[in-house]
Design goal:
6-stranded parallel sheet
């Protein structure tokens, strides 16, 4: 279709926070959850969240993996390449025109209420960039003018299930769950101008029906397996069954990314359980995967997205072998990935995430986590681990156990990210999300202890990670963050000494103006701005 006047029949996009590679780092990726107003927009979007490259026609060179899968599904269904564009959200005027019938948006957290975003917005105040940027797409002048049908999918699509929210936003259809099988017929309906179902629940797609991506993904992400099967009660249903892709298919997607200059980042909920039989790790299959990918022409380095601590503890020799194979530790380099500590309480594990510790028993969880961190440290793996604050039915002694575990993890190079519990999955209707109002000084102590851990390790990680990769911008980020780290350290001290960990009270005092924690340079800038007016 296109080009100049009519533009594209199908336009796919994602909000601006998803259209960044965050300097190739999972650590800076969490900055996507920082609310607007904490740092000036121009610093945030130039330093922390720089945009992916765009082409003349508004297309992005790299796109979120989910968007690329939908693009591939539509092409497989029969749409032509010149009918579809994956466009930059700030270049929609180049992609949307009179011929545009449908706008497909990938969203991880469209309302800013997911665990990571809601934690940051509640603690720091302000609105999530993700929610702001999602609304900006819906209110884009080209969307208003040409009125394509709007279909939203992605990990955060569940947030748009209530009718009044969709109506208010102007979303015609939301796809909750996996979208590859639904996309073709749905987009065809939209193209024909037919009535769309308002909510579609995408079924689990079998391995052989998941199409191979046609164009490059953010950070070279390539899915090696989908699903998990550990069955945590708050997890989304589509992660219930583990499905692994054959190596040939993985290599095809790696080639797509290599052509665009991206090294492979292997993605699975637990990379160590590639081809696992139930919970039992298949070491041979994992090693074969890593060996094959490493030997593949053009592959220099390999990254991974997630791994489970119970898999690390169950197969320390596998971790060691992967490290040896990839020369991890050579020249001071390390391997990183996201994982979940979630709690230090065996009772909470037994109640909400029994499968998470398998093959170990819930009672073994705290020691197992410690053992896994030790194995990771010995093999130069740096975990970025989440913890859940405010699990349903959590008692003070459960939080005490988590605090104890956090203290024991202090010697290990890692990040510990405390996130507020959000009612999702099977527990969506039977539990309530954790909020600031429910925060006790004990919760405050847990959050403060995690951030003390992070501040201690951040300086070292920043130096080792950013500056060695991108000197120019990296040096700026390091300076900026070093200043931020010192400032946050002072705030944590105040919370500990003057508020006895009552973080909620301290935040209330900051919001009411009783306590001024604005950094001096910002205070001076504010004064200057006020003088001008
Ligand atoms: S381990 Fe993670 S991905 Fe697996 S079920 Fe639990 S929360 Fe979901």
């Amino acid at each position: 279709m296109n080009e100049e006047n009519n533009r594209y029949k199908i336009v796919l996009t994602a909000d601006r926070t998803l259209m960044s590679e965050y300097h190739g780092g999972i650590f800076l990726g969490f900055s996507a959850c920082i609310p607007k107003g904490v740092i000036p927009d121009w610093i945030y979007f130039s330093m922390f969240c720089p945009s992916v490259e765009t082409l003349e026609n508004g297309a992005v060179k790299y796109a979120p993996y989910g968007t690329r899968k939908i693009e591939a599904a539509l092409l497989k269904y029969g749409f032509e390449t010149d009918e579809i564009i994956v466009a930059h959200p700030e270049r929609l005027h180049k992609a949307i025109g009179p011929a545009t019938r449908v706008l497909g948006i990938t969203e991880n957290d469209p309302l800013g209420i997911g665990p990571a975003t809601s934690t940051f917005t509640q603690l720091l105040g302000g609105q999530a960039y993700m929610a702001i940027k999602f609304k900006e797409i819906l209110n884009h002048p080209s969307v208003k003018k040409y009125k394509p049908k709007v279909i939203v999918g992605g990990a955060g699509a569940w947030q748009l299930e209530p009718e009044h929210i969709r109506k208010e936003l102007g979303v015609h259809c939301v796809v909750i769950g996996e979208g590859e099988e639904e996309a073709g017929p749905l987009f065809e309906k939209a193209v024909r101008g037919e009535q769309l179902p308002e909510v579609v629940y995408g079924e689990m797609v079998s391995e052989e029906k998941i199409p191979v991506i046609r164009n490059a993904t953010i950070d070279g992400l390539v899915e090696i397996a989908r699903g998990c099967g550990r069955g945590c009660r708050f997890c989304v249903p589509t992660l219930q069954r583990l499905r692994c892709h054959p190596i040939e298919k993985i290599l095809q997607e790696i080639d797509v990314n290599l052509k665009a200059g991206r090294r492979p980042l292997l993605h699975a909920e637990d990379v160590l359980r590639y081809k696992a039989k139930g919970i039992k790790i298949d070491k041979e299959a994992v090693i074969k995967l890593f060996k094959t990918v490493k030997a593949h022409p053009g592959v220099g380095a390999i990254g991974i997205s997630h791994f489970a601590l119970s898999s690390v503890a169950a197969a320390p020799d596998l971790v060691e072998e992967i490290s040896g194979l990839l020369n991890v530790g050579k020249n001071g380099e390390w391997f990183s990935g996201q994982t979940g500590v979630e709690t230090g309480s065996p009772r909470m594990i037994r109640k909400h995430m029994r499968g998470k510790c398998r093959p170990f028993a819930p009672e073994e969880w705290p020691n197992m986590v410690l053992g896994a961190f030790e194995i990771l440290a010995e093999n130069n793996w740096v975990p970025c681990a989440t913890l859940i604050v405010g699990l349903p039915e959590e008692k003070e002694k459960d939080i005490d156990l988590t605090i104890q575990l956090v203290e024991e993890l202090r010697p290990f190079k890692s990040l510990l990210v405390p996130l507020f519990y959000v009612a999702m999955g099977c527990m969506k209707d039977e539990t309530e999300s954790f909020t600031m109002e429910k925060m006790t000084p004990k919760h405050g102590e847990l959050i403060i202890k995690c951030w003390e851990h992070n501040l201690e390790w951040s300086k070292i990680l920043l130096k080792e990670y950013i500056v060695t990769r991108k000197f120019g911008v990296g040096y700026g980020i390091r300076l900026f963050l070093s200043y931020g780290i010192n400032h946050v350290k002072k705030m944590l001290d105040i919370c500990r000494r003057e508020y006895n960990y009552d973080l909620k009270q301290m935040i209330n005092d900051v919001r009411s103006g009783e306590l001024d924690v604005t950094p001096r340079p910002i205070r001076i800038i504010n004064k200057l701005i006020n003088m001008k007016h």
